[in-house]
Design brief:
The protein is mainly β and 379 residues long. 2% of the residues lie in helices and 43% in strands. The strands form seven sheets. The chain has a five-stranded antiparallel sheet, with no helix packed on it. Strands 3, 4, 5, 6 and 7 form a five-stranded antiparallel sheet that branches.
């Protein structure tokens, strides 16, 4: 992309100021002048607004740095646009617990008192009336209205809710290295030798799970649900792969692959379809350690693992250009977990660059075409 070319909303970038276009789209290495001081927000809970030192974009820290706060896994549902809240976990009470922050006024509410919470497991139900989490291996359901709690299954290392419309609530769970389909009426084993995550395919059509290899790599496997008589797990990809995420229509799986080149290892976004598992390159990245797509995969938000430029970026897949949003400066870039809000108006991420892990927000409404309706594929 050259100087002077305007990008319309049709190509998902509008309203970029002249200075931002000059400094970011042309990818100048040096930081912008720090002539503006941080601007204070009206008192709203723990919200603190400041200007990013590299781009001068406004960034809002949603949680205080007197304790650690963690976002759920990016593929989980944890933001409600209708009720304007975000879920996160915090150790502010002495042990990790799930919290809800009102995105209008910053008010915090503790939702449960688990014994040993897995913070990445916190997830809203499809209808957003229930909260699911793992508490010391117990898959636990919490009613948001009255905080009523019940245990759905024990000895669970990971889970995901199937989002088949109109169906009874059912889960895929990993227990003792086995992938099981857990419903209100039955429990069915559908795969063995499952070492890592499970990730339901949108529409309830199947599940992705991970296996580790002897060489230190990983394998991504797919199994349809319900399991057909002739069907079984199918290996989709293997090697130096990470960060699997389904496209919102469930047609393809996106993931990161490290590709070795002379004197450098590149990070590329690849894709594969379960029905025709031929791996394809979507785009190269500036050393993404983690990423998430928007509604139509036209824009990715990623966290760079570059030590020189530890930033959060937007990547336009069609023109293969990147736009720097802000610094993250996290000790572990893969844990930054950047993700779009369901309406694509904001990007949320976490970072420990202020000493404690905190949750941050950046408004991208002028840069990204908003999603007209709240979707249920991920959030």
């Amino acid at each position: 992309m050259t100087d002077g070319i305007r990008i319309t909303r049709r190509t998902l970038l509008t309203g970029i100021t002249a200075s931002l276009t000059e400094s970011v789209l042309c990818q100048e290495a040096k930081a912008l002048p720090r002539s503006q001081k941080a601007k204070s927000l009206p008192r709203a809970g723990e919200f603190v607004r400041f200007l990013d030192p590299v781009t001068e974009n406004p960034v809002v820290r949603l949680t205080a740095v007197t304790s650690n706060s963690f976002l759920p896994r990016p593929t989980n549902r944890f933001v409600s646009i209708k009720d304007r809240f975000l879920l996160f976990s915090s150790d502010r009470t002495g042990t990790l617990a799930p919290f809800q922050v009102d995105l209008r006024n910053g008010m915090l509410m503790q939702l449960a008192k688990p014994r040993k919470l897995a913070p990445e497991s916190v997830c809203l139900s499809l209808k957003k009336s229930l909260l699911y989490l793992l508490d010391d291996g117990a898959l636990t359901e919490i009613v948001l209205g009255n905080r009523k709690t019940r245990v759905l299954a024990d000895a669970v290392s990971d889970f995901c809710e199937l989002d088949a419309p109109g169906a009874n609530t059912s889960f895929l769970v990993i227990r003792g290295g086995r992938l099981e389909l857990l419903s209100e009426v039955a429990r069915t084993q559908i795969a063995e030798g499952v070492d890592e995550f499970c990730l339901a395919r949108p529409g309830g059509r199947g599940c992705l799970f991970g296996r580790q290899t002897d060489s230190g790599g990983r394998e991504f496997w797919y199994v349809p649900t319900p399991l057909a008589d002739s069907a079984g797990p199918v290996k989709l990809v293997s090697g130096a792969v990470s960060n699997p995420v389904w496209t919102h229509d469930g047609q393809r799986l996106l993931f990161l692959r490290d590709v070795s080149r002379p004197n450098v290892t590149l990070s590329e976004v690849h894709s594969v379809a379960p029905e025709a598992p031929v791996e394809q390159v979507v785009t190269t990245t500036s050393q993404f350690a983690a990423f998430s797509p928007n509604e139509d995969t036209s824009v990715l938000v990623g966290a760079s693992r570059s030590r020189a430029q530890p930033t959060v970026l937007l990547l336009l897949t069609e023109v293969k250009r990147e736009l720097t949003l802000c610094e993250h400066r996290a000790a572990h870039p893969s844990a930054v977990s950047p993700v779009f809000s369901p309406d694509s108006k904001r990007v949320y991420f976490q970072s420990d660059h202020e000493g404690k892990s905190a949750v941050y927000s950046v408004n991208v409404e002028k840069l990204i075409e908003p999603t007209p309706d709240e979707r249920v594929a991920f959030f």
